[in-house]
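Late entry, evening session. Most of the bench is empty. Finally got around to the prediction I had been postponing all week. Sequence below, unchanged from the version circulated by S.P.
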Amino acid sequence: MLEATVLRVDARGALVDAPDGAIYAQLRGNLFQEATWATRPVAVGDRVRLEGSGSDLTIAEVLARRNQLIRQAKRGEPKAQAIAANLDEVAILAALSKPTFSSTFVDRVLATAAACEIGALLILNKIDEAAPADADAIASTYRKVGIDAMAISAKTGAGSTRCARACAGAPPS
């Protein structure tokens, strides 16, 4: 059996990063029938065991997860939905302007990551279109509660070196 990492998931299969490169594998039917608390048996980041070859390649087993980022399934569904698995950190990208920054989504993702015991990084984009004091105030608020927060401009490249280092796992500078 080959082992691989799940890169993308759809209704009945997944694109996986196998030893010879990315390949599509079908989800074996018994994965859906196993008693589980999750709505989907496979998530991005899962380590899986593959059987077969070519177009007959199937995901036979999902290996134990180190962690997982989950959300509640749709209304009335008692099961949760695994969004991703085996994460080192969650990076949240939020605009400072166009649209104006709103903490609602950011706080929800941060709370979910904290509940799942996964570290988080907040990246505030569009500093070229926002007042510098706005970016500093927002980043400072999140830093006070232990969240690494930084401001960048994808348009001008400002802050991109620090952001790339942080996303690569380097300590903040």
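Two things to note before I forget:
Residues 103-115 form the longest helix (13 residues).
The mean pLDDT is 87.
Will write this up properly tomorrow.
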